[in-house]
Amino acid sequence: MPAFYGWRIVGVAFVADFVATGFFFYSYGIFFKALAADFGGSRLAVSFGISLANVVGALLSPYLGRSLDRSSIRTIMLCGSLSTAAGFALASQIGALWQFYLILSSLVALGIVCMGGITAATLVSNWFVARRGTALGVATMGISLSGLAMPPIATALIASYGWRGSFALYAVATLCLVTPPVAIWAVNRPEDVGLQPDGAPPPDPATPAHATDRPWRTRELLREPRFWAISLAFSLSFCSVSAVLIHLVPHATDLGIEPVRAAWLLSTCAGAGVLGKVVFGRLVDRVDPRVAVWISFGTQLAGLVWIAFAAGEAALFAGAAIFGL
Q1: What is d(CA 18, CA 72) in angstroms, rounded to the nearest whole number?
Q2: What sections of the chain are H helices per DSSP?
Q3: Buried (b) or exposed (e) across 252-288, using 16+ Cβ within 10 A?
Q4: Which H helix or E strand runs over 325?
Q5: Predicted confidence (pLDDT) per residue in 30-68, tens digit
Q6: CB 256 within 8 A of CB 266
Q7: Are 68 and 118 in contact (CB under 8 A)?
C-alpha cells in the first residue's frame, strides 16, 4: 500500500520552514556583529531590522490567512520563495542600514510569511486531522533543525565570504531548496486529488459532520474570548523566543565565549527543539492540548531564567537546551 500523499506535504512544509526560519531568524544573530561593525550601528539599531520585519509580518498575517482559505497555497509559497530570494540578493548590495531595514520590512518579511510559518502550517493542517499534532510536529522539525545547522554554517560562510557573499548564497539556496518541491508536490487539500485527510476512506454521506467542523466567520471569531486568550499567550511566548534567538550569540560573546562556540548555543537550543517537536506533537494527539501547552510554557520559562543568570559556558548551554525543548 503506497504511503499517504500527505507525508509529502509534510516534507514540503519541513523544507519551507527550514529555509524561512534558518536563513532569517536563526542566522540574524550571526550577521548581527558583522553588520554593526560595517555600518557603525549599535546592537539596538541592527536588531531594529528584525523588529520591523516581525511587525510587517504581523500586519500581513490576517490578509494572508484569508488568502490561504481562498487561493492556491502553492502559488503563495512560490511567491514567498521568490520574494525572499530577491530580498537576500538585494541585502548583499546594501550601502546603509536604512536600506537593510527597507528590504527586511518588504521583500523578506513578505517572503517569510508566505513561504513558511502560517502558510506551511495551514498546508499541513489541511491534510491531517486525527494525526495533525504529529504531522505538524514533524513539519516544524524543519524549524529546529535549521537552528541546529544554520548558526555554524552562517558563521563559516561569513568567515569565508563575508556577510555580503553569504546573503547572495542564501538567495540562491532559497530558490534551489524551496521552489522545486513546492512546485512539484504542494496541493491545497487532499480532496483536490481525490483523497481524505489522514488517508481515511471517504466519509459516509449519512454520517453528520462533527460540530467542530463548522467554519468560523471572522466577525464571530473576533468576538470569542478564547481566541484572544490563545493568541495573547502564544504571542508573548514567541516574543521571548525571538528575543533569545537574536541576542543569545552576542550575549555569549560578551561573556568571553568564542564566536564559533557561541553559535553552537543556537544549535543546542534548536537540537533540543527537534526533540520537543516530536514529544509535544505526539502529546497533543493523546492528551488535552492545554496540558501540553502548560508544560511547554513552563519549560520555556525555566530555560529563560537559567540563561539570564548563567555566568559560564556550561550553564549557558544547559539553559539553551532547556529553553529549546
Answers
A1: 21
A2: 6-20, 26-39, 43-70, 73-91, 97-103, 109-115, 118-127, 132-139, 141-185, 218-222, 225-254, 259-284, 289-309, 313-324
A3: bbeeebebebbbbbbbbbbbbbbebbbebbbbbbeee
A4: none
A5: 787 788 778 776 667 777 777 888 889 888 988 998 899
A6: no
A7: yes
Q: What gap in Å lies between CA 31 and CA 50, rounded to an integer?
A: 12
Grid coordinates given for 57: 509580518
Cell reading at 163: 556577510
Check: pTM over 0.90? Answer yes or no: no
* Grid cell locating 260: 564559533
- In sequence order, the 6+-apart residues with CB closer than 8 A to the CB of 146 are 17, 18, 19, 21, 22, 23, 26, 270
The residue type found at 151 is: P
Residue type, 89: A
* Chain center to CA of 234: 14
Angstrom distance (rounded) from CA 107 to CA 308: 34
* Cβ 125 vs Cβ 132: under 8 Å: yes
Percent of the chain with pLDDT over 90: 46
Can you give the three-state secondary structure of 213-264, one letter per residue?
A: HCCCCHHHHHCCHHHHHHHHHHHHHHHHHHHHHHHHHHHHHHCCCCHHHHHH
What are the distances in angstroms from CA 84 to CA 63, 91, 113? 18, 10, 10
- Give the whole-angstrom CA distance, residue 193 versus residue 320: 43
Contact by Cβ (8 Å): 155, 30: yes
Over residues 239-263, mean pLDDT: 84
Q: What percent of the chain has pLDDT over 70?
A: 94
Cβ atoms of 111 and 84 within 8 Å: the answer is yes
What is the rounded distance in angstroms from the CA atom of residue 225 to the CA atom of residue 233?
12
Asked if 28 and 245 count as a contact pair (C-beta separation under 8 A), the reply is yes
